[in-house]
Write a structure and sequence with these properties.
Structural class: alpha/beta
Distance between the termini: 19 Å
Order of helices and strands: EEEHEEEEHEHEHEHEHEHEHEHE
Helix content: 10-25%
Radius of gyration: 20 Å
Shape: globular
Oligomer: single chain
């Protein structure tokens, strides 16, 4: 009989979501873990990472990763520990992260896991495994390279970041403060806005659900926005474009307003011309070769207390669907995770 440790519990795609994710879009099953072959490793998953990109990855069409396949585990970042290895680069006990998907035990063919699907070994001395899925992982790297490499902030500039209470947005804001910038954030409640200012050190934050977006940006960025880090798209992007300063840089990271709806192009794009601005997308996997160096720097700032990394953790793989729905409803601040491993 297969032991409990050799059963893989999975959250699988039951249907491609139409609009907001529903409980009926995700099902749960359990299958035996196959025996390892040469070149493979078995990983016991400890944490599943909840990120807005999951909704994008649940669509049927291919992007920079293959589209979601019905009956396959929902694609998400995860972190775990190698329990058995038949690959020279990995040993039992190694911490790893990657697009391992929503499952508790996974066998990975290391040589086939390349590019965005690559398996990354983590250094436990830099932070906790959960932090390697947040500020030291894919979301933190998105903030690091999107802001520091693509936007190139200059001290004294005004940086505006939308969805600022999430992992990427809150990290962008903190990094911008480290660079000497004035930072304005938007979030979906007054409580979150107070948290951004009082706990994370943002200079200002406003509730995007109240009042007029353009007026709020004029109030908080009276001399214009030098860098807009966009996690939302839609009306927020249009309002930010209308208030760009000369030489502004817009970094397109996500489109939370449209993941569960139809995409709509910006109306105020002409301001990029008059502001002599630029607008670029960020796909963090383009910088994977540089992640180790960036992770080291982020870990230093984290250890010094100059970066904060709050977490909200749900328990058990059975909570994956409800936790994902809570992510899109904006129920929590900081990094959201599902803890699936319980030590025997």
């Amino acid at each position: 009989m297969t032991s409990p440790q050799q059963i893989n519990h999975r959250a699988v795609l039951a249907a491609h979501p139409q609009g907001m994710v529903q409980t009926s879009d995700i099902a749960f099953d359990a299958i035996p873990v196959p025996a390892l072959r040469n070149g493979e490793v078995q990983i016991a998953t400890h944490y599943l990472s909840l990120d807005p990109a999951i909704r994008y990855w649940m669509n049927a069409y291919d992007t920079y990763v293959p589209g979601g396949r019905i009956g396959s585990p929902v694609r998400c970042y995860a972190g775990g520990v190698v329990v058995e290895s038949k690959h020279a680069d990995f040993a039992s006990g190694d911490w790893v992260t990657g697009l391992l998907s929503a499952q508790t035990q996974i066998v990975v063919d290391v040589s086939a896991a390349t590019g965005a699907l690559a398996l990354t070994k983590c250094d436990p001395s830099l932070g906790t495994l959960s932090q390697h899925l947040g500020v030291l992982g894919m979301p933190g790297m998105t903030a690091y390279f999107g802001l520091l490499r693509q936007a190139k902030p200059v001290a004294g500039e005004t940086v505006f970041v939308s969805a600022a209470s999430g992992t990427v947005g809150s990290t962008v804001g903190q990094l911008a403060k480290l660079m000497g910038c004035r930072v304005v954030g938007s979030a979906g409640s007054d409580e979150k806005c107070r948290w951004l200012v009082d706990t994370l050190g943002f200079d200002a934050a406003f509730n995007y659900k109240v009042g007029n977006l353009a007026q709020a940006l004029k109030q908080h960025a009276p001399e214009g926005i030098h860098i807009y880090f966009d996690n939302v798209g839609g009306e927020m992007l249009d309002a930010a474009l209308a208030n760009l300063a000369r030489g502004a840089r817009v970094v397109l990271c996500g489109a939370l307003s449209a993941y569960n709806d139809a995409y709509a192009g910006p109306k105020n794009y002409i301001k990029l011309i008059t502001a002599r601005g630029t607008m670029n997308g960020i796909i963090v996997f383009d910088f994977m070769d540089e992640w180790p160096t960036a992770t080291q720097q982020m870990a230093i700032w984290l250890a010094e207390g100059r970066l904060k990394s709050p977490e909200h953790i749900s328990l058990g793989i059975g909570s994956f669907c409800s936790a994902l729905i809570e992510l899109f409803s904006g129920a929590h601040t900081g990094k959201q995770l599902v803890k699936v491993y319980v030590a025997p």
